[in-house]
Design goal:
The complex is a heterodimer of chains A (328) and B (428).
Chain A: H1 22-39, E1 53-58, H2 63-75, E2 79-84, H3 87-90, H4 93-104, E3 110-115, H5 120-127, E4 133-139, H6 145-159, E5 166-170, H7 177-188, E6 193-197, E7 213-215, H8 218-222, E8 227-230, H9 236-239, H10 246-253, H11 257-260, E9 268-270, H12 283-286, H13 293-313, H14 318-327
Parallel strand pairs in A: 1-2, 1-3, 3-4, 5-6, 5-8, 6-7, 8-9
Chain B: E1 3-7, E2 10-13, E3 18-21, E4 24-27, E5 30-34, E6 45-48, E7 53-56, E8 58-60, H1 76-85, E9 88-93, H2 104-117, E10 121-124, E11 126-127, H3 140-146, E12 151-152, H4 161-173, E13 178-180, H5 185-188, E14 193-194, H6 197-202, E15 206-207, H7 210-226, E16 230-232, H8 238-249, E17 254-259, H9 286-298, E18 303-305, H10 313-317, H11 333-342, H12 348-355, H13 357-362, E19 378-388, E20 407-417, E21 420-424
Parallel strand pairs in B: 1-6, 2-7, 8-9, 9-10, 11-12, 12-13, 13-16, 14-15, 16-17, 17-18
Antiparallel strand pairs in B: 1-4, 2-3, 4-5, 7-19, 19-20, 20-21
Classes of the chains: A alpha/beta (328), B alpha/beta (428).
Chain lengths: 328, 428
């Protein structure tokens, strides 16, 4: 934890949601809330990071995530560079760190890192010079903290504080960086109950003492849930003999209108996107009144602005942002 | 005719059930006598071993030198010098060299390099199948005749069970010992660490214990069915070690080893993506480690090996998934074994048995003993010498150790191979 927090407990890097104190998680969400106001205005920019440079360093393709990080940086008035790197040419230690030091020499203030290997963001964070921040935009199957935070933000916006809520996460838990980060973020924010729902082939065998409830039966797991988060299913899971077929998965674990009846009447449906319609979600649910999927995308920008401003700008409270907003 | 007298030390030789103060006499590379000097013996050289242990040189049955093939990581000269400094006088190099040790010409190449420069005795292990591909049997008898004391899968377990059975049958025809890796290649695929709480927390793909036990089940079933002897290497799990114990109890000729680091590391050492603790097989749970220790103590696991795998810094500098597995361990093998004595797990004699006569017996090697007529491979050890593991001062070209800064006690002060001093600790 000391790697991502400084001696005063402030956020230096954002690598994982694991172990982040509740007040810090709350402060990130509160800051994001302030930025939501900015995004809704006709001039959607604040000058918080004017003159700062952020580099999106993506070792695996992800247009959606990269775009939201880019937009968030631009809304903070930072200069943004996008670097797409073939993982094969930079997965070896020497080339990965060589590349980092070369890019660092260009005087960047922060790197947003996406990598197929777990721990890549942490590795880079250990090697950057002081004052350069790393934001993990997804590493292997380990963590995707901004996705988890934007989900927490969305839940708080839609349902209020997380304490009384039962949140169900459904699908490929085993390979999901999102699910791992969500579990830590939701529990860190005091969520009432976190449930994981999946067939045994898509569940980790050990949870390291985390107080989550595991269900292999979708119907039982959905009973009374206030929030249902459906995870994206990678198609290669079929060929890897983890699942028999997409249709079988949808039949057992797909979210349909009928299944949704088992949840609490006001339950919301979420998905980190992009949705495989007819595999994870019935299109009528994906586009239905309970779905907040598009609001998640919008909230993603505010949350990423909050994280960037905290790790680079040192602005960690909403009052400072309001002042900036006024002066701009 | 060179004659050597080692005086004042305590001889520890498990093969001769010996642990007593005694002088040792060597002539022409052979142990001549203990105790009183043979009639007419006059030494060309006398080594004072007062306060020290005089033991057979260590026999390490799995140490990769990286030559031929990867000399940026190690080499016959550097690694044999590291072995000598660690008290090792015989080491077996697995066949996964580049090129693979699957023909007599590669064996000859290794021998010629060893004759030029090696500080210790290096025995290349031959490949069980051509190219270690698990498809075609290698020319086993020719490999034996060229100087391979054993055959192995080189850490690339055979996928095809029928080929495995035939390889064991064919090796048995010529009574060549076979060393096998108990790993199911399908269950192991992609798993860089033990499948457990730490792997889940770090988001790393894990290898289940069944990776080892399923493979062991297959190996033991074939060995039993065909009546052949096998040696299984680098055990990592409690259940796997218990399966070996059960097979031995049924009278099967099965021997086993584990790497010394398996008796110290657990999955927790991988926390923080510590690539130095990335090994294959992975370090497992504390419970696994404790059972391995117990079965080393009882002798079910009769051999310890270094499983030395030196790497250049780049090999360990990437992400955990991308980094190469293995520990540089020739420098630390002896002292980590002696630590088991300090911890009360093994007696001194048992400890030396696991690293001298145990491995020699398992593979039918004529080394690992100080009995009269044996090759004069000797390790003189200061059992009280305290030192700290510092990667920068390790003799191996590979500095990749998760044991950096550990305080250890006991070190080789003089190493002798065939009656020739190949290492002397500078301060000695």
């Amino acid at each position: 934890m000391s790697l991502q927090l400084d001696s005063q407990g402030r956020l230096r890097h954002l690598l994982t949601t694991e172990g982040l104190p509740r007040e810090l998680l709350t402060r990130i969400l509160d800051t994001a809330e302030s930025f939501s106001g900015v995004i809704g205005k006709s001039v959607k920019k604040v000058p918080l990071l004017r003159g700062r440079t952020i580099m999106n360093l993506f070792f695996e393709p992800s247009t959606r995530t990269r775009t939201t990080f880019e937009l968030a940086a631009q809304r903070l008035s930072a200069d943004v560079l996008n670097i797409d790197v073939a993982t094969s040419s930079a997965s070896k230690g020497e080339s990965l760190l060589d590349m980092l030091h070369n890019l660092e020499a260009m005087q960047c203030d922060a790197f947003v890192v996406r990598h197929a290997d777990s721990g890549a963001a942490e590795l880079i964070a250990r090697h950057v010079r002081p004052g350069v921040a790393i934001i993990n935009a997804g590493d292997g199957r380990h963590a995707h903290p901004t996705q988890a935070l934007l989900d927490a933000f969305t839940i708080r916006s839609e349902k209020g504080p997380l304490e009384p809520l039962t949140i169900a996460i459904v699908g490929d838990i085993l390979h999901s960086r999102v699910a791992r980060s969500e579990v830590h973020a939701f529990l860190g924010l005091g969520a009432g109950e976190v449930r994981l729902i999946a067939p045994r082939t898509l569940l980790p065998r050990c949870f390291d003492g985390l107080p989550v409830k595991v269900f292999e039966d979708m119907d039982a797991g959905l009973e009374g849930a206030d929030v249902v988060i459906m995870l994206r299913l990678q198609r290669e899971r079929m060929s890897g003999a983890l699942l028999p077929s997409e249709s079988e998965f949808f039949k057992r674990y797909g979210l349909t209108e009928k299944r949704l009846e088992r949840t609490s009447p006001q339950a919301i449906v979420m998905h980190p996107g992009p949705v495989n319609r007819g595999v994870e979600l019935d299109p009528r649910v994906a586009d239905g009144p309970r779905s907040v999927i598009l609001r998640q995308v919008t909230n993603g920008i505010a949350v990423r602005m909050a994280v960037m401003s905290m790790v680079i700008g040192g602005h960690s409270d909403e009052a400072a942002i309001r002042n900036e907003e006024v002066s701009s | 005719m060179s004659r050597l007298r080692i005086t004042g030390g305590t001889i520890v030789d498990p093969a001769a059930n010996l642990e007593q103060p005694s002088d040792l006499y060597v002539a022409d590379g052979i142990v001549l006598a203990h105790g009183d000097a043979p009639d007419g013996f006059s030494a060309d050289q006398v080594i004072d071993a007062t306060g020290k242990l005089v033991a057979p040189g260590l026999v390490d049955i799995a140490a990769r030198l990286r030559e031929p093939g990867s000399t940026s990581k190690g080499g016959i000269i550097s690694e044999s010098q590291a072995a000598a400094a660690g008290g090792i006088t015989t080491l077996l190099q697995p066949p996964d060299t580049q090129p693979i040790t699957d023909t007599p010409s590669v064996v000859e190449l290794i021998h010629s390099r060893c004759n030029e420069a090696a500080a210790t005795r290096i025995l290349p292990v031959g490949a069980l199948t051509k190219g270690l591909k698990g498809e075609q049997l290698s020319e086993m008898a020719a490999l034996r005749d060229a100087g391979c004391p054993a055959l192995a899968d080189g850490g690339r377990p055979l996928h095809n069970t029928l080929v495995l059975q035939r390889a064991l049958d064919y090796a048995a025809t010529f009574a060549i010992p076979v060393m096998l890796t108990p790993e199911d290649p399908y269950l192991a695929a992609g798993g860089a660490t033990h499948e457990g709480a730490i792997a889940n927390r770090l988001g790393l793909a894990g290898q289940s214990t069944a990776t080892e036990t399923a493979a062991l089940g297959r190996l033991i079933a074939i060995a039993e069915e065909r009546g052949v002897a096998i040696h299984v290497g680098r055990l990592s799990s409690a259940r796997g070690a218990e399966m070996v114990a059960a097979a031995q109890q049924r009278g099967l000729p099965i021997t086993a080893d584990t790497a010394i680091h398996q008796l110290y590391l657990t999955e927790h050492d991988c926390a923080g993506y510590n690539s130095l603790a990335h090994t294959c097989p992975p370090a497992r749970t504390t419970g696994d480690r404790e059972v391995l220790r117990q079965l080393v103590s009882t002798g079910v696991i009769g051999c310890l090996c270094s499983d030395h795998q030196p790497h250049d810094p780049d090999a360990k500098a990437g992400t955990f998934d991308a980094c190469e597995p293995g520990i540089s361990s020739l420098d630390t093998f002896l002292a980590l074994t002696l630590r088991l004595v300090d911890e009360g797990l093994l007696t001194l004699k048992q400890a030396f048995e696991r690293i001298t006569s145990g491995p020699a017996k398992a593979l039918g090697l004529n080394v690992g003993s100080l009995q009269m007529g044996s090759p004069a491979d000797i390790c003189i050890i200061d059992p009280k010498l305290a030192w700290q593991i510092k990667p920068e001062t390790m003799h191996s070209r590979g500095k990749n150790t998760p044991f950096a800064n550990w305080e250890l006690t006991g070190a080789a002060t003089t190493t002798i191979v065939d009656g020739r001093v190949v290492y002397r600790r500078p301060s000695d």
